[in-house]
Specification:
Oligomer: single chain
Low-confidence stretches: none
Number of strands: 13
Helix content: 40-55%
Strand content: 15-25%
Length: 336
Amino acid sequence: MLEHGGNLNDAARHYGRPRSAWLDLSTGINPLAYPAPAPGMDAWHRLPEPSDALERAACDYYGAQRMLAVAGTQAAIQALPQLRLRQDGRPARVVVAAPIYAEHAHCWQRTGHLVREVPYAALDEEVQAQRCEVLVLCNPNNPTGALVAPAQLLRWAQQLAARGGWLVVDEAFGDTLAAQSVAAHSAAPGLIVLRSVGKFFGLAGLRLGFVAAAPALLEALADWLGPWTISGPAQQIGTAALRDRHWQDRTLTRLLADGERLHALLQRHGIAASGSALFQWWPETRAADFHASLASQGVWVRLFTRGAGGIRIGLPPDEAGWQRLDAALAHWRAHG
């Protein structure tokens, strides 16, 4: 199993500091989550049937014509390689943008597909040379924040679809960049868009995400995943969150401001980072030492040891957290 952020149990065991004493900045999750309403009793008692209300709320929020609810985008990331193999009967030539959320390449490789990891700058060459049947990328990218223009994505999707291919666009961090989304075009053949409720809404524990794609592909994916994939409580809470425009508007304003504040804070400590409103990343040359230094101050950040390597830092939840991060960065600068 690959390593991910949010692993506070590992931090507590390794450093002997209880979970409650950590400032966890190791994920790109909104630290001030949507105030989830208490689900009705029927959500706990009944088997969860597919929810039309949840699908309508998702389509309205993400701008897609059709969406399939899944148990977090991780469920779709694991299922799509299996589905491609079943539909095509042979391994596909897959290009995964690099660096990227590591589960993408891992899941395609584990299924037996022929995977190459290619820098973002070389993706167009791969499509034009017809060296791939499936192209996978995050937009904005996790962890670097790199963006590919929607017009370019749609060109790639059309070219891949013409030869029976897929373009998989993971927009898990796309809520603060709505103009960059291609979800509205996902009814076209070959374009698959993944969205997450865990990041912007801060509801990672809900395990709820969505896939936008052509109806036939969504039906095949639903059949592959089987029944009862989204719990009743997740359906009710997800529907409420996706419909709450007032909370969404206020949260977007706050996250954009906090993202700029984090970027500026890192700059003041001599760190040139990139990212999104929810996180910042940079290719730290002494990444392991930096990670250990902040951990010694009780600040848990994400260490990347493969691909481009580096450090990713999420947003503090409150003013005390901002001050604690500032102090930890100052300590690294003085003693690192």
